[in-house]
Specification:
The protein is an alpha/beta fold and 109 residues long. The protein is built from 5 helices and 3 strands.
Length: 109
């Protein structure tokens, strides 16, 4: 959405570059690209985002591999995105950490 509409800031929490890439890695024996209807290719749209972007990643994410988040981060134009890793936080527990709330205060600045 932020690649097509003007937004002041963007925060992505535990993001990935592509669901198709994740599924292909997780299920290499399945024809994932033909089975998935929605591929959620955030990495494809990241280069068009111009709003300051904060990526908040869980340091102990058991769902989204750090490499997927790093690939997404690399797709943004230089200086557009920054990343904050919440150490010890899991994919489903990140919102309960004090550091997560601190990170979100960036969006209020």
């Amino acid at each position: 959405m932020a690649s097509r509409r003007r937004v002041a800031r963007l925060v992505l929490v535990t993001p990935f570059d592509s669901v198709q890439a994740l599924a292909t890695q997780q299920f290499p024996f399945m024809p994932v690209r033909w089975l998935l209807r929605d591929k959620y290719e955030s990495g494809r749209y990241a280069p068009q985002v111009t709003a300051p972007t904060l990526i908040v990643a869980a340091g102990a994410d058991e769902i989204i591999p750090a490499a997927s988040t790093a690939r997404l981060m690399a797709r943004f134009a230089p200086g557009v995105a920054s990343i904050r890793v919440i150490r010890g936080a899991g994919h489903n527990t990140i919102a309960g950490t004090p550091d997560y709330l601190d990170a979100l205060q960036w969006a209020d600045q």
